[in-house]
TrEMBL record:
Residues 324-346 are annotated as: Disordered. GO terms for cellular component: chloroplast envelope; chloroplast thylakoid membrane. It comes from Carex littledalei. It comes from the Eukaryota. Residues 324-335 have a biased composition (Basic and acidic residues). Residues 336-346 have a biased composition (Acidic residues). This is Uncharacterized protein.
Length: 346
């Protein structure tokens, strides 16, 4: 074990001295955990017995940096596993752990995906990361609108003050129409259920009430048909790809007009809203297209239509939502460059 740990020290120090390579290796947690304690112990022994002051300092810096990255990767992997195990409750996870969804976390997902040769595994991680990023964006946008939050809180208080669970669920159903069961209210309900779920002091009866309210909200969210659904039907029925993407761009242009169209049937929205509904439809279709409450998802039986929907989602993420992704990635890149700078100085 001593020889192996010495080889690992040499590997980190000379063969692969960049932190981005360390992150790839440490992302394989099961393998790393077999040797990490012995590795750190060997570093301490080498530091205590080293006579060369310069090399001793290099060993100290190496052990310190490895430990720092090790702790970061551990936190990121713990969060990754949570969202991986709860793909349908990512909004609730974000509501409870927003501060953990940092640029470093999304950079970690990119590093993790690169460690796999399987394109299927890479794609699964990338798709999960996109879902997390979308949920984070929706969460942040909602918090920016305090008026919306106050209105949502009032609605939520009214639901909680219901005389019975049946009445509470009935109120949610009555709100299931555009601009009533909005993202702010959904955020509060997700947050409340997440907090109840993790609580060790809350009574099970209260947890059950919060769970039923949460499930009623999810069901209502799937049965409403907002303008985005009508827009998607229109886009998916356009055969020519160029015409489809032109119509997509035009729908956003209408939303940005100084004087919005007075036509109630005008097909216009924002990239964020349309992206959210594409996600809902794809999730409903892939989860259980026969039993889903979203009628439109049950109608997506044609593989060609599904492919068009996926391409629309990718187009939104790459051409319209990319700015937010770039901001997160740039922050992570700056942190990576800072680390590399420290290595050079070391």
């Amino acid at each position: 074990m001593t020889q192996l740990c010495d080889k690992m020290i040499d590997f980190f120090m000379n063969t692969k001295p960049k932190t981005k390579d360390w992150r790839k290796l440490l992302s394989h947690r099961d393998d790393w955990k077999k040797y990490k304690d012995n590795f750190y112990n060997r570093c301490r022994v080498r530091i205590d017995t080293e006579n060369d002051a310069s090399f001793k300092q290099k060993l100290v810096l190496l052990a310190r940096k490895i430990k720092k990255i090790d702790d970061e990767v551990e936190r990121h992997m713990e969060l990754f596993k949570e969202v991986q195990e709860n793909p349908l409750d990512i909004d609730a996870v974000v509501a409870r752990r927003r501060k953990d969804f940092t640029g470093d976390f999304f950079q970690h997902l990119n590093v993790l995906a690169d460690t796999y040769r399987s394109l299927e595994k890479q794609d699964a991680i990338i798709r999960l990361g996109a879902k997390c990023l979308s949920a984070v964006r929706a969460y942040d946008c909602t918090l920016e609108n305090l008026d919306s939050m106050e209105t949502a809180q009032s609605k939520f208080d009214d639901i909680l003050n219901s005389a019975s669970l049946e009445e509470a669920c009935s109120k949610i159903t009555s709100l299931a129409k555009p601009k009533e069961l909005d993202s702010s209210l959904i955020l509060l309900i997700n947050h409340a259920w997440a907090a109840a779920k993790e609580s060790t002091t809350m009574k099970n009866e209260v947890k059950e009430i919060m769970y039923q309210i949460y499930k009623a909200t999810q069901k209502s969210l799937r049965i409403i048909s907002p303008p985005e659904i009508r827009l998607l039907k229109h886009l998916l029925n356009i055969e020519d790809p160029d015409e489809r993407f032109a119509a997509l761009a035009n729908s956003f242009t209408l939303e940005d007009d100084a004087e919005p169209s007075k036509d109630p049937d005008a097909l216009c929205t924002t990239p964020e809203k349309l992206h959210k509904w594409i996600k809902i439809m794809l999730d409903a279709y892939h989860l259980n297209k026969e039993e889903t409450d979203l009628i439109e998802a049950r109608k997506l039986g044609d593989p060609m239509i599904i492919q068009r929907l996926i391409i629309l989602k990718q187009t939104l993420e790459e051409d319209y939502l990319k700015r937010h992704v770039d901001e997160e990635g740039e922050k992570a890149k700056e942190g990576e460059e800072a680390e590399e700078g420290e290595e050079t100085e070391g």
